[in-house]
């Protein structure tokens, strides 16, 4: 019975800091295959690929098993929504058309089993640093994207992977209770002041797992990461829980 919604973020497939990227992809694919029978929704909340630039006529190499697993889910009737993160910004029309998924650049509010969900990667809300906001705008600017696409991939791909590697040692498998002063908590509370009720705010980006009540009837979820701790979320119509993907490694 298809009665569950799954949420995962920050897989960072293809990242240089992952010791065995092929094995990492196989673990993720095995998990995708395991949810095929009961999944009705799969929400990919950004940074699924460590780097991806979708050229008009040429497709970057890699991720064949992963894309195939997504296509099988879509073909079996699973609704797949991919939120752009700060590493997989440059998805355009190839993956949506070939796989049969929806791409969201920004946030989305939707109802699942009578509960309202606000979802976003996590880098686009509550961010106060002007430098980051400028960088985010540049990456999404169509003129800048066209200029970037004119540079040969032999230069852009290594640059992108090297640039992404410096901050990846921050993941933790301990459930984190974000303070009320944290930008995501502040954003969620402020949002509820001016919008309809939200039952679950769901984010990625931080690489730490969070599942806490921020006010009566509203929970804040941060999905953690899926390259070290392999955490993901599942909503069964009654409650939202964080789980860990079985990597087959008991160490």
Strand content: 15-25%
Q: Indicate the low-confidence ranges by residue numbers.
A: none
Query: In percent, how helical is the residue content?
Result: 25-40%
The biggest beta sheet is recorded as: 6 strands, mixed
* Alpha-carbon distance between the two ends: 33 Å
- The helix-strand sequence is EHEHEHEEEHHHHEEEEE
Mean pLDDT: 85
Q: Please tally the β strands and state the result.
A: 11
Strand order of the largest sheet: 4-3-2-1-10-11
**Shape annotation:** globular
What is the CA-atom radius of gyration, in angstroms?
18 Å
Number of helical runs?
Answer: 7
Helix and strand composition category: alpha/beta
Main features:
5-stranded mixed sheet; 251 residues; globular; 6-stranded mixed sheet; alpha/beta; 11 strands; 7 helices
Q: What would you say this structure looks like, in words?
A:
The model has no long low-confidence stretch (mean pLDDT 85). The chain is built from seven helices and eleven strands. A six-stranded mixed beta sheet has the order 4-3-2-1-10-11, covered by helices on one side. It is 30% helix and 22% strand. The radius of gyration is 18 Å and the shape is globular. With 251 residues, the protein is of the alpha/beta class. The two termini are 33 Å apart. Strand 8 and strand 9 (218-223) form a beta hairpin. It has helices at 21-34, 64-75, 94-100, 130-139, 142-149, 153-164, 183-194; strands spanning 4-8, 39-44, 79-83, 102-104, 108-112, 115-119, 200-203, 209-215, 218-223, 231-235, 240-244.
């Amino acid at each position: 019975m298809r009665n569950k919604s799954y949420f995962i973020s920050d897989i960072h497939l293809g990242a240089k800091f992952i010791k065995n990227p092929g094995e990492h992809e196989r673990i993720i694919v095995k998990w995708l295959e395991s949810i095929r029978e009961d999944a009705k929704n799969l929400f990919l909340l950004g940074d699924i690929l460590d780097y991806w630039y979708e050229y008009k006529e040429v497709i970057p190499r890699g991720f064949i098993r992963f894309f195939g697993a997504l296509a099988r889910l879509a073909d079996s009737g699973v609704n797949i929504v991919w939120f752009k993160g700060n590493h997989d910004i440059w998805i355009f029309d190839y993956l949506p058309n070939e796989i049969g998924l929806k791409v969201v650049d920004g946030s989305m509010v939707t109802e699942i089993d009578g509960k309202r969900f606000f979802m976003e990667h996590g880098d686009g809300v509550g961010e106060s640093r002007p430098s980051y906001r400028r960088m985010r705008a540049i990456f999404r600017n169509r003129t800048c994207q066209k200029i970037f696409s004119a540079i040969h991939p032999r230069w852009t791909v290594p640059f992108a992977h090297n640039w992404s590697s410096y901050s990846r040692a921050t993941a933790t498998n301990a459930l984190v209770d974000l303070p009320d002063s944290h930008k995501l908590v502040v954003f969620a509370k402020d949002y509820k002041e001016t919008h309809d009720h939200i039952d679950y705010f769901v984010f990625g980006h931080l690489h730490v797992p969070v599942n806490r009540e921020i006010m009566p009837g509203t929970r804040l979820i941060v999905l953690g990461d899926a390259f070290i701790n392999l955490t993901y979320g599942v909503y069964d119509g009654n409650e939202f829980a964080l789980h860990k993907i079985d990597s087959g490694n008991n160490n």
